Amino acid sequence: MSFDYMAIWSNRDLLIQGLLTTLLIAGVAIPIGIIIGIVVCMLRISKNRLLRWPAMAYIEIIRNIPLLILLFMMFYALPFFGIRLSGLTIGFICLSIYGGAYFAEVFRGGVEAVSKGQTDAAKALGLKYGFYMRRVIFPQLYSYVFPPATNIALTLIKETSLLSMVTVAELTYAAHDINGRTFTPVETFATIALIYWGISILFLKLTAGLQSRIEVGHISQPLAIR
Amino acid sequence: MELQFFEILPQTGPMFAAALYTIFVGIIACGVGIAVGTVLLMMRNSRLWVMRNFAGLYGSFIRGTPVLVQILVFYYALAPLIGLNIGPLTAGIMAVGFNSGAYVAEILRGGLSRIPPGQWEAAKALGLSRHKTWFRVILPQVYYSVIPLLVNEFTMVIKITPLLSTITVIELTRASQMLYTETFRPVEVLLIAAVIYFVICFSISQYGEFLQRRSQKYRL
């Protein structure tokens, strides 16, 4: 069996374009997801039921439905209601919403891990809730939240590959495209697998560098989602 | 437009059958995952340098590439390359299982770290071979201690199965796609599919949490 590497090389523009789109989607969806996660986490840990229950419902619903179904629902359902969005926009929205639920759980885990015992101390000192959150919990949160949040960000980078199924021309879509025209499945899919692997390794190296600067104390690392 | 659930509902029979099929695929893939994870765990703790490095590389690859790409690589590239002539279902189950294996290996590693080293020494003192120590002494305890996490892993596997629709395995997502191309009612059909997925995953993950709470209550 011979390999046709020229098929990859002559279509490198498509792959590079796809790679840039993938990075763009991840680069937009991760920060928005983190913001959604922080807001939902604040709602989730609030004492008011009217705020807590919708947040709980959001987290549970998103975490128990596959991303692909969410994507399809947005992609096919919104036009029925007269809203027309491009696949790319739907990708941004879906990945942000999806990531938001997981980030919220990570932040909640961090708050719970930090606040063991500190809640009592803060109460004894007569600190107000807002002040306690801002000045006691938040500064300590970083080292607890960083490793699992990294995992989820990496997952979101990988999940961008699903957007190929709602016609977003990212890396996986580019591979399907090249494969369709040159019929070289082995070469194309192996190539994009290596590219994704490279992105992930680079991302983990970067975040590990960041983390070593802020590392404080013991950190338990939960497993990544996919 | 108006939602017409009552017109769609009588036609959803294939979807519920496909939901059962999804669970079936999930169970087998999870079984493959546990087998692969166990092998990886033993390789990671092997005395051979090559074995340890292979396990590390494997984990890095699986966690560093999207599941969708792994499925595509497995179905379109790897299986033909090594001369395996397997259908989409087998390829899909293998791909998902091999993916799950890397994560199961991490779960098992967590369980292994809780086994006191005295167990190894005791087994050695009793003259058990390394092989026997693994299978008769260490692994049963590891499995037992990580049952709640394995239950959660099962929901993860269920959430990967929609990707098998890309390689024409007729599981729940594919069945709903077929139904809405037939009826032109994607909103209703996909909502029903989402509800089915939610019911499956939510009930399993709640059961996992129940097991976790119970194990925390009774241990130590």
Verbal overview:
The complex is a heterodimer of chains A (226) and B (220). Chain A is elongated and about 75 Å long. With 226 residues, chain A is mainly alpha-helical. Chain A has a single domain (5-214), classed as MetI-like fold (Orthogonal Bundle). Chain A has nine helices and no strands. Chain B has a single domain (5-218), classed as MetI-like (MetI-like fold, Orthogonal Bundle), CATH 1.10.3720.10. Chain B has ten helices and no strands. Chain B has helices at 5-8, 13-44, 49-64, 67-81, 88-113, 118-125, 130-145, 147-160, 172-183, 186-218.
Q: Rg of chain A from C-alpha positions? A: 21 Å
Q: Termini of chain B, distance in Å? A: 59 Å
Distance between the termini of chain A: 34 Å
- Average pLDDT, all residues of chain B: 88
Determine and state the CATH class of chain B. Mainly Alpha
CATH class of chain A: Mainly Alpha
Order of helices and strands of chain A: HHHHHHHHH
- In the CATH hierarchy, the third-tier topology of chain B is known as MetI-like fold
User: Any idea what the CATH superfamily of chain A is called?
Assistant: MetI-like
Unreliably modeled segments of chain A:
217-226
Strand content of chain B: under 5%
**Tally of discrete structural domains of chain B:** 1
Beta content of chain A comes to under 5%
Class from helix and strand fractions of chain A: mainly alpha
